[in-house]
Amino acid sequence: MRARSGAASQPRVAGDQLTLLLSLVPYLIDQGRVSVTEVAKHFDLSAERVRGLVSLIALSGIPGETRQYLHGDLFDILWDEFETNDRIVLTHQVAIDDSPRFSAREAAALIAGLQYLSALPDNADTDAIASLMAKLTRSASAPPTQVAVAQRDAGTTRDIVQTALSTQMQVEFDYLNARGGQEHRLVDPLRIESVDNDWYLRGWCHLREAVRTFRLDRMSEPRVTDVPRSTHPTDLVLPDTLFQASTTDVDVRLELPTTALPLLADYRPERAEPVGSGERTRTTLRVAHSHALKRLVTGLAGIVTVLEPAESRQAVADWAAAGFAQYAADRQRPTEEE
């Protein structure tokens, strides 16, 4: 019975050994230079067990075409450093370098995304994001392009709003609405979130006596008051989407190339109808007012045509004409002679 038990345990021991090796090799590659003590602590092993595994790694590899192990077919370590200073340094890797890697451009794009995530209030300065960015830099096929994600909001307004949220105090500010008017607002902050590059505060507006959404880059002179935010009904629930339909919304009919229709996905277009051969499509958007179309037309200049209602079409035409007039004024302005 003892012999049978020992034979049965042999596959389990071999499997454990293989699992350790498969975990140890990537760890050593990632660390670059690490002591036996550090490895033993990381894997919860004895120092002697780590030394045995490292010696086994040096006997591992992939045979060449002749099915024999030749120079370069095995892992290798810096033996003087290992035997003298008890430190592990891999000097030759087998097969690992042949695995697919991110290109420099792919790594740069991922790093840029992680930089953006690190700016989110809940993720700021986390060690996990910093560690992942470092790993992407080391593991790319070439050094990634240095990318810095510019933030439209300098951070001051967001910090003030975040402070109001964490302390559950009211926040007040002057707000420039989409119509160009400026009003003083007193708000009970409920949530701060971002969509693309824009940050928004969702809270109970005491001026409107309802939940409203505010863009942070349209706030000026924000400050946290010394008044705790009001108590609201328990059934006050923030909707899942930032913007909600209203009875005063305007239905705007647009026409654009069918291939560009996905660009309007965030606006939730309705009643899409193909035009002619189907190369162009007409669809309907619900907007709070005609002035909200200015930003849409700016982002899709030359692509979107506003069809109706006439008021919306005229608002966009007037806005475009005003912009064009600025260029005309610059051309007519006399220049000073040198």
Top-tier CATH class of the largest domain: Mainly Alpha
As for the number of domains, it is: 4
The coarse silhouette is elongated
- What average pLDDT do the residues reach? 75
Tell me the series of helices and strands, N- to C-terminal.
HEHHEHEEHHHEEEEEEEEHEH
Beta content: 15-25%
State the strand order across the main sheet.
8-7-6-5-9
Structural class: alpha+beta
Question: Which stretches are poorly predicted, pLDDT < 50 over at least 5 residues?
Answer: 1-12
Organism: Cryobacterium flavum
InterPro entries: CBASS_pafABC_assoc_protein (IPR051534), PafC-like (IPR028349), PafC_HTH (IPR043839), WCX_dom (IPR057727), WYL_dom (IPR026881)
Domain PafC HTH: 16-138
Domain WYL: 159-224
Annotate the secondary structure layout.
Blueprint: H1 2-31, E1 34-35, H2 36-43, H3 47-57, E2 76-77, H4 79-85, E3 87-88, E4 90-92, H5 104-118, H6 127-139, H7 156-167, E5 169-176, E6 182-195, E7 198-205, E8 210-215, E9 219-228, E10 250-257, E11 270-275, E12 280-287, H8 293-299, E13 305-308, H9 310-332
Antiparallel strand pairs: 1-3, 2-4, 5-6, 5-9, 6-7, 7-8, 10-12, 10-13, 11-12
Pfam family, one: WCX
Domain PafC HTH: 16-138
Domain WYL: 159-224
